Amino acid sequence: MGESSSRLEEKKINILVVEDSETQNVWLRQILEKNGYQVSATYNGKEALAVIAENEPALIISDILMPVMDGYEFCKIVKMDRNLKDIPVILLTLLDNPKDIIKGLECGADYFMTKPCDEKNLLARVQHILKSFRDREPEESLAAVEVFHGGQKYNISLGSQQIIDNLLFAYEIAIQRNRDLRKAQEDLRAFTEHLEEKVKEEMAAFVAESTERKRVDEELQFNLEKLQRTFQETVHALASASEKRDPHTAGHQQRVAELACGIAKNMGLHADQIEGIRVAGLLHDIGKVSIPAEILNRPGTLADIEFSIIKNHPQHGFDILKTIEFPWPIAQIVIQHHERLDGSGYPLGLLGDRILLDARIVAVADVVDAMISHRPYRPACDLDVVLAELNDNRGVLYDLEVVDACLKLFENKNSRCA
Ligand SMILES: [Fe+2]
């Protein structure tokens, strides 16, 4: 028989569709009708039984999970009915679990198809089943099969064609699973490759960023060191500018700075505060740039008026430095370096701890260096005289702890900054 005449016969064939999903129901109906079959569409087993009573179909395609009456129960009723049992039943389901299939076979289902299935496979399966049933020997004996699955025994009766078809179905599912697994494996490999690429890109970006950050850090460090050098050079230039007016005190500010640092270290002060004291020591007499050179350089005892002019140098120093943003109170230390604890100092006559500790340290260092240095109006004092001055005025003119730290320096013969 030719294919065209075979299709003409199939056009008259009635297929019963039992499917609760509206989408699936419509899809099945459209595919089958488009290919020449007559379709009765129902939505559960109970509706399907009513339709069969009116018009017996050549093939039943039924879903399993449905309301009112599911596919298993519907199939069982059909297969137990002597008049209906020869109608082939395909269970169309999402399930491909062996237990569900065994349950379907127990209910007498002839074939299974998993959802979603494509149009080509559906039509091929329908044509094959219709042909198999048409060609089947009447009263073909069924083989009773005992199936053990999951520790449970199932009794199933199957015809030879049915066994072959179901084996084929199992084989198709295995192939599909294998195909899915291979696809998943390929996706995973592609994803891994993509991931490796991304990791390489991220690593490269990270390395580039780290290199750039290191370069910026080094540049910042270089600029910071350069700035610190410029600052030191500026401070020294300022200090030497003031000493140029008074050659007799050359090196005085440098020595005061070193001695003050030694005292501060002995007192256990923080390194940053010591650095501030060093800068203040270097600049403490900067106000002398405003004092006439003839007064600064004149030998002999100063007249009161001259001395009062000289006494203005802390204020001049403050005025010069007050607008400079040092990280330490340099202008305040400079204006206070001739203040004394008992209020007898100048220019403000401050008392006790109203005088900054840093200024009390510079004051002692200044007195010591001035006494041991030669001046136009007097010779340099012996160290004994200097020590006596400190001891006599310890806690009176000069800070007690500062004097002790200074005396300790002389004891250790180490008055230099590290
Ligand atoms: Fe001074």
Could you walk me through the main structural features you see in this protein, from its secondary elements to its overall organization?
The chain is an alpha/beta fold. It folds into 2 domains: 3-158, Response regulator (Rossmann fold, 3-Layer(aba) Sandwich), CATH 3.40.50; 245-411, Hypothetical protein af1432, CATH 1.10.3210.10. 58% of the residues lie in helices and 9% in strands. The protein is built from 16 helices and 7 strands. The protein has helices at residues 3-10, 22-34, 45-54, 71-80, 98-106, 119-135, 160-244, 252-266, 271-283, 293-296, 304-310, 313-321, 330-335, 357-372, 383-392, 400-411, and strands at residues 14-18, 38-42, 59-62, 89-93, 111-114, 143-149, 152-158. A 5-stranded parallel β-sheet has the order 2-1-3-4-5, with helices on both faces. Helix 8 crosses helix 14. The radius of gyration is 55 Å and the shape is rod-shaped. The termini are far apart. Fe (ii) ion is lined by residues 284-285, 313, 337-338, 366.
